[in-house]
Amino acid sequence: MEELKATENKDRKTPSTQKKSRKWGWLFFVFIVLAAVAAGWWFGPKLLGRDVPQMTEAEAWTQVNRWLYADQPDSLEEALYIYMKQHEDGPHADEVARLQEQFQTEQEVWKKVVRGECSLERVDAFLSQHPDGFFRGQAIFMMDSLTFQAALDENTESALLSYIEQYPNGMYMKEAQERLKNWGELDMTEEEQEEAEDLIRLHFRAMANGEEGALLTTVSPSLSSYLGKKRSTSEDVVSYMEHMQAKHGSRNFEASHVKVKKIKNAESWIYNVQFKLDEMVTINDSTDVDEKSFSGTAILDDAMRITSLVLEMKP
Protein backbone atom coordinates (compact mmCIF):
# COMPACT_ATOMS: atom_id res chain seq x y z
CA MET A 1 0.00 0.00 0.00
CA GLU A 2 1.38 3.42 -0.92
CA GLU A 3 2.29 5.44 2.14
CA LEU A 4 0.14 8.54 2.71
CA LYS A 5 1.98 11.68 3.67
CA ALA A 6 0.13 13.93 6.07
CA THR A 7 0.35 17.67 5.70
CA GLU A 8 -0.83 20.47 7.97
CA ASN A 9 -3.93 21.25 5.96
CA LYS A 10 -5.00 17.98 4.31
CA ASP A 11 -4.63 14.19 4.12
CA ARG A 12 -4.59 13.95 7.91
CA LYS A 13 -5.94 10.57 9.11
CA THR A 14 -8.80 10.67 11.59
CA PRO A 15 -9.11 8.21 14.50
CA SER A 16 -12.02 6.49 12.75
CA THR A 17 -9.90 6.01 9.61
CA GLN A 18 -7.11 4.49 11.68
CA LYS A 19 -9.56 2.11 13.37
CA LYS A 20 -10.92 0.99 9.98
CA SER A 21 -7.37 0.42 8.72
CA ARG A 22 -6.55 -1.79 11.69
CA LYS A 23 -9.75 -3.74 11.21
CA TRP A 24 -9.09 -4.38 7.53
CA GLY A 25 -5.50 -5.31 8.38
CA TRP A 26 -6.68 -8.05 10.76
CA LEU A 27 -9.29 -9.27 8.30
CA PHE A 28 -6.51 -9.59 5.72
CA PHE A 29 -4.41 -11.57 8.23
CA VAL A 30 -7.26 -14.02 8.89
CA PHE A 31 -7.74 -14.37 5.11
CA ILE A 32 -4.03 -15.25 4.71
CA VAL A 33 -4.32 -17.91 7.46
CA LEU A 34 -7.33 -19.49 5.77
CA ALA A 35 -5.62 -19.36 2.37
CA ALA A 36 -2.56 -21.13 3.80
CA VAL A 37 -4.72 -23.90 5.29
CA ALA A 38 -6.61 -24.31 2.02
CA ALA A 39 -3.36 -24.46 0.05
CA GLY A 40 -2.12 -27.21 2.35
CA TRP A 41 -5.20 -29.30 1.61
CA TRP A 42 -5.02 -28.66 -2.13
CA PHE A 43 -1.35 -29.46 -2.58
CA GLY A 44 -1.00 -31.90 0.34
CA PRO A 45 -2.56 -34.93 -1.40
CA LYS A 46 -0.44 -34.24 -4.48
CA LEU A 47 2.71 -34.19 -2.38
CA LEU A 48 1.77 -37.58 -0.99
CA GLY A 49 2.24 -38.97 -4.48
CA ARG A 50 5.94 -38.12 -4.53
CA ASP A 51 8.63 -40.74 -4.13
CA VAL A 52 9.32 -41.53 -0.48
CA PRO A 53 12.17 -43.60 0.94
CA GLN A 54 11.36 -47.20 1.72
CA MET A 55 10.90 -47.71 5.46
CA THR A 56 10.84 -50.84 7.52
CA GLU A 57 7.55 -51.58 9.24
CA ALA A 58 9.02 -50.52 12.58
CA GLU A 59 10.26 -47.22 11.13
CA ALA A 60 6.89 -46.46 9.51
CA TRP A 61 5.03 -47.28 12.74
CA THR A 62 7.41 -45.06 14.70
CA GLN A 63 6.63 -42.18 12.33
CA VAL A 64 2.90 -42.65 12.86
CA ASN A 65 3.31 -42.50 16.64
CA ARG A 66 5.69 -39.55 16.36
CA TRP A 67 3.08 -37.36 14.66
CA LEU A 68 -0.07 -38.78 16.27
CA TYR A 69 -0.12 -36.25 19.14
CA ALA A 70 2.12 -33.54 17.68
CA ASP A 71 -0.66 -31.23 16.38
CA GLN A 72 0.83 -31.45 12.88
CA PRO A 73 -1.93 -33.09 10.80
CA ASP A 74 -0.05 -32.78 7.48
CA SER A 75 2.85 -34.85 8.83
CA LEU A 76 0.47 -37.37 10.38
CA GLU A 77 -1.47 -37.72 7.12
CA GLU A 78 1.76 -38.47 5.28
CA ALA A 79 2.93 -40.99 7.92
CA LEU A 80 -0.38 -42.85 7.72
CA TYR A 81 -0.22 -42.86 3.92
CA ILE A 82 3.34 -44.21 3.87
CA TYR A 83 2.56 -47.00 6.32
CA MET A 84 -0.47 -48.21 4.39
CA LYS A 85 1.29 -47.94 1.03
CA GLN A 86 4.39 -49.82 2.12
CA HIS A 87 3.02 -52.17 4.81
CA GLU A 88 -0.65 -52.81 4.10
CA ASP A 89 -0.26 -56.29 5.59
CA GLY A 90 1.86 -55.13 8.54
CA PRO A 91 1.07 -56.00 12.17
CA HIS A 92 -0.30 -52.48 12.78
CA ALA A 93 -2.14 -52.12 9.48
CA ASP A 94 -5.62 -52.45 11.01
CA GLU A 95 -4.92 -49.75 13.58
CA VAL A 96 -3.36 -47.43 10.99
CA ALA A 97 -6.34 -47.96 8.66
CA ARG A 98 -8.67 -47.04 11.52
CA LEU A 99 -6.65 -43.91 12.29
CA GLN A 100 -6.59 -42.96 8.62
CA GLU A 101 -10.37 -43.27 8.39
CA GLN A 102 -10.85 -41.16 11.53
CA PHE A 103 -8.40 -38.59 10.20
CA GLN A 104 -10.17 -38.26 6.85
CA THR A 105 -13.59 -37.98 8.50
CA GLU A 106 -12.45 -35.23 10.85
CA GLN A 107 -10.55 -33.52 8.04
CA GLU A 108 -13.73 -33.19 5.99
CA VAL A 109 -15.52 -31.57 8.94
CA TRP A 110 -12.62 -29.14 9.52
CA LYS A 111 -12.58 -28.21 5.81
CA LYS A 112 -16.24 -27.21 6.02
CA VAL A 113 -15.50 -25.05 9.07
CA VAL A 114 -12.75 -22.99 7.40
CA ARG A 115 -14.19 -22.97 3.89
CA GLY A 116 -17.42 -21.38 5.03
CA GLU A 117 -17.86 -18.26 7.13
CA CYS A 118 -15.11 -18.96 9.65
CA SER A 119 -16.50 -17.64 12.93
CA LEU A 120 -15.78 -18.15 16.61
CA GLU A 121 -19.00 -20.09 16.97
CA ARG A 122 -18.16 -22.54 14.15
CA VAL A 123 -14.60 -23.18 15.36
CA ASP A 124 -15.74 -23.51 18.97
CA ALA A 125 -18.40 -26.02 17.90
CA PHE A 126 -15.71 -28.01 16.08
CA LEU A 127 -13.55 -28.09 19.23
CA SER A 128 -16.53 -29.22 21.30
CA GLN A 129 -17.12 -32.11 18.88
CA HIS A 130 -13.40 -32.98 18.55
CA PRO A 131 -11.73 -31.84 21.81
CA ASP A 132 -8.75 -34.18 21.29
CA GLY A 133 -8.92 -34.35 17.51
CA PHE A 134 -6.21 -34.26 14.87
CA PHE A 135 -6.94 -30.61 14.00
CA ARG A 136 -7.18 -29.37 17.58
CA GLY A 137 -3.99 -27.30 17.28
CA GLN A 138 -5.16 -25.54 14.12
CA ALA A 139 -8.57 -24.90 15.67
CA ILE A 140 -7.06 -23.38 18.82
CA PHE A 141 -4.78 -21.22 16.65
CA MET A 142 -7.84 -20.02 14.73
CA MET A 143 -9.81 -19.39 17.93
CA ASP A 144 -6.92 -17.33 19.28
CA SER A 145 -6.82 -15.15 16.15
CA LEU A 146 -10.58 -14.72 15.87
CA THR A 147 -10.99 -13.93 19.58
CA PHE A 148 -8.34 -11.23 19.43
CA GLN A 149 -9.89 -9.80 16.26
CA ALA A 150 -13.25 -9.64 18.04
CA ALA A 151 -11.58 -7.83 20.96
CA LEU A 152 -10.07 -5.29 18.55
CA ASP A 153 -13.44 -4.77 16.89
CA GLU A 154 -15.11 -4.15 20.25
CA ASN A 155 -12.16 -1.99 21.32
CA THR A 156 -12.97 -2.05 25.03
CA GLU A 157 -10.94 -2.86 28.12
CA SER A 158 -13.29 -5.70 29.08
CA ALA A 159 -12.90 -7.32 25.65
CA LEU A 160 -9.10 -7.30 25.94
CA LEU A 161 -9.29 -8.71 29.47
CA SER A 162 -11.59 -11.44 28.23
CA TYR A 163 -9.00 -12.36 25.58
CA ILE A 164 -6.25 -12.48 28.23
CA GLU A 165 -8.35 -14.71 30.50
CA GLN A 166 -9.10 -17.14 27.67
CA TYR A 167 -5.60 -17.14 26.15
CA PRO A 168 -3.08 -16.21 28.87
CA ASN A 169 -0.30 -17.55 26.61
CA GLY A 170 -1.96 -16.49 23.36
CA MET A 171 -0.20 -15.24 20.26
CA TYR A 172 -1.42 -11.69 20.90
CA MET A 173 -0.93 -11.57 24.67
CA LYS A 174 1.81 -8.93 24.52
CA GLU A 175 -0.20 -6.72 22.19
CA ALA A 176 -3.30 -7.12 24.36
CA GLN A 177 -1.31 -6.16 27.46
CA GLU A 178 0.18 -3.15 25.68
CA ARG A 179 -3.28 -1.99 24.69
CA LEU A 180 -4.48 -2.46 28.28
CA LYS A 181 -1.94 0.10 29.39
CA ASN A 182 -4.28 2.67 27.88
CA TRP A 183 -6.61 1.84 30.75
CA GLY A 184 -3.79 1.55 33.26
CA GLU A 185 -2.26 -1.01 35.59
CA LEU A 186 -3.34 -0.69 39.20
CA ASP A 187 -1.03 -0.28 42.16
CA MET A 188 -0.77 -3.41 44.30
CA THR A 189 0.05 -3.83 47.98
CA GLU A 190 2.67 -6.22 49.34
CA GLU A 191 -0.14 -8.15 50.99
CA GLU A 192 -1.83 -8.73 47.62
CA GLN A 193 1.47 -9.90 46.10
CA GLU A 194 2.00 -12.35 48.98
CA GLU A 195 -1.60 -13.57 48.88
CA ALA A 196 -1.36 -14.30 45.13
CA GLU A 197 1.93 -16.19 45.63
CA ASP A 198 0.46 -18.20 48.53
CA LEU A 199 -2.62 -19.04 46.45
CA ILE A 200 -0.53 -20.52 43.62
CA ARG A 201 1.59 -22.58 46.04
CA LEU A 202 -1.50 -23.82 47.91
CA HIS A 203 -3.12 -24.91 44.66
CA PHE A 204 -0.24 -27.12 43.63
CA ARG A 205 0.46 -28.40 47.15
CA ALA A 206 -3.17 -29.53 47.41
CA MET A 207 -2.91 -31.07 43.94
CA ALA A 208 0.17 -33.08 44.93
CA ASN A 209 -1.30 -34.23 48.26
CA GLY A 210 -4.77 -35.09 46.94
CA GLU A 211 -6.47 -32.54 49.21
CA GLU A 212 -9.74 -31.89 47.39
CA GLY A 213 -11.14 -29.40 49.90
CA ALA A 214 -8.04 -27.21 49.89
CA LEU A 215 -7.79 -27.45 46.10
CA LEU A 216 -11.34 -26.21 45.56
CA THR A 217 -10.75 -23.13 47.74
CA THR A 218 -8.19 -21.96 45.17
CA VAL A 219 -10.40 -22.02 42.05
CA SER A 220 -13.30 -19.82 41.03
CA PRO A 221 -16.77 -21.33 40.47
CA SER A 222 -16.67 -19.60 37.07
CA LEU A 223 -13.51 -21.03 35.50
CA SER A 224 -12.93 -19.92 31.91
CA SER A 225 -10.20 -22.48 31.15
CA TYR A 226 -8.01 -24.96 33.02
CA LEU A 227 -4.92 -26.61 31.52
CA GLY A 228 -6.19 -26.33 27.96
CA LYS A 229 -9.86 -27.13 28.57
CA LYS A 230 -12.29 -24.28 27.96
CA ARG A 231 -15.40 -23.77 30.10
CA SER A 232 -13.91 -25.93 32.83
CA THR A 233 -15.65 -26.72 36.11
CA SER A 234 -14.52 -27.55 39.62
CA GLU A 235 -15.22 -31.20 38.77
CA ASP A 236 -12.65 -30.98 35.96
CA VAL A 237 -10.01 -29.74 38.41
CA VAL A 238 -10.76 -32.57 40.85
CA SER A 239 -10.72 -35.14 38.02
CA TYR A 240 -7.29 -33.90 36.96
CA MET A 241 -6.04 -34.26 40.54
CA GLU A 242 -7.48 -37.79 40.82
CA HIS A 243 -5.87 -38.76 37.50
CA MET A 244 -2.54 -37.49 38.78
CA GLN A 245 -2.93 -39.33 42.08
CA ALA A 246 -3.63 -42.58 40.21
CA LYS A 247 -0.19 -42.48 38.64
CA HIS A 248 2.67 -44.36 40.28
CA GLY A 249 5.00 -42.48 42.60
CA SER A 250 4.76 -39.42 44.81
CA ARG A 251 5.13 -35.91 43.50
CA ASN A 252 5.92 -32.45 44.77
CA PHE A 253 5.51 -29.07 43.12
CA GLU A 254 7.55 -25.97 43.76
CA ALA A 255 6.39 -22.59 42.41
CA SER A 256 9.01 -19.87 42.13
CA HIS A 257 9.82 -16.61 40.30
CA VAL A 258 6.23 -15.47 40.86
CA LYS A 259 5.33 -12.13 39.24
CA VAL A 260 1.94 -10.55 39.85
CA LYS A 261 0.21 -7.69 38.05
CA LYS A 262 -3.08 -6.15 39.12
CA ILE A 263 -5.14 -5.04 36.13
CA LYS A 264 -8.33 -3.01 36.18
CA ASN A 265 -11.31 -4.37 34.28
CA ALA A 266 -14.76 -2.97 33.60
CA GLU A 267 -16.19 -3.86 37.02
CA SER A 268 -13.27 -4.44 39.41
CA TRP A 269 -9.83 -5.99 38.73
CA ILE A 270 -7.96 -9.22 38.04
CA TYR A 271 -4.49 -10.51 38.86
CA ASN A 272 -2.17 -11.79 36.13
CA VAL A 273 0.30 -14.22 37.74
CA GLN A 274 3.40 -15.53 35.92
CA PHE A 275 5.48 -18.23 37.62
CA LYS A 276 7.89 -21.14 37.18
CA LEU A 277 6.71 -24.58 38.34
CA ASP A 278 9.03 -27.50 39.06
CA GLU A 279 7.56 -31.01 39.37
CA MET A 280 9.52 -33.73 41.18
CA VAL A 281 8.22 -37.30 40.88
CA THR A 282 9.67 -40.12 42.97
CA ILE A 283 8.82 -43.61 41.73
CA ASN A 284 7.77 -46.05 44.46
CA ASP A 285 10.66 -48.03 46.00
CA SER A 286 13.19 -46.04 43.99
CA THR A 287 15.66 -43.27 44.67
CA ASP A 288 15.29 -41.93 41.13
CA VAL A 289 13.56 -38.57 40.80
CA ASP A 290 11.98 -37.43 37.54
CA GLU A 291 12.06 -33.63 37.30
CA LYS A 292 10.10 -31.40 34.91
CA SER A 293 9.82 -27.62 34.67
CA PHE A 294 6.90 -25.54 33.41
CA SER A 295 6.20 -21.88 32.78
CA GLY A 296 2.80 -21.01 34.20
CA THR A 297 0.22 -18.25 33.81
CA ALA A 298 -2.80 -17.90 36.06
CA ILE A 299 -5.58 -15.32 36.05
CA LEU A 300 -7.11 -14.66 39.48
CA ASP A 301 -10.38 -12.85 40.10
CA ASP A 302 -10.76 -10.03 42.63
CA ALA A 303 -11.38 -12.66 45.34
CA MET A 304 -7.97 -14.25 44.64
CA ARG A 305 -9.31 -17.42 43.01
CA ILE A 306 -8.05 -19.00 39.80
CA THR A 307 -10.24 -18.38 36.75
CA SER A 308 -7.70 -19.56 34.17
CA LEU A 309 -4.53 -21.67 34.35
CA VAL A 310 -2.02 -22.57 31.63
CA LEU A 311 1.20 -24.60 31.95
CA GLU A 312 3.81 -25.01 29.22
CA MET A 313 6.60 -27.53 29.63
CA LYS A 314 10.09 -26.08 29.31
CA PRO A 315 12.53 -27.92 27.04
Account of the 3D structure:
There is one protein chain. By secondary structure, the protein is an alpha+beta fold. It has two domains: 22-180, no CATH class; 187-313, Nuclear Transport Factor 2, Chain: A (Roll). The chain is 53% helix and 17% strand. The chain is built from eleven helices and seven strands. The protein has helices at 15-47, 57-68, 73-86, 93-115, 120-129, 136-154, 157-166, 173-180, 190-209, 212-216, 234-246, and strands at residues 185-186, 225-226, 229-230, 250-264, 269-282, 289-300, 306-313. It has a seven-stranded mixed sheet with strand order 1-4-5-6-7-2-3. A hairpin with a 6-residue loop joins β5 (269-282) and β6 (289-300). The radius of gyration is 24 Å and the shape is globular. The protein starts with 14 loop residues before the first helix and ends with a strand.
Task: Provide a short characterization of the protein structure.
The protein is α+β, with helices and mostly antiparallel strands and 315 residues long.
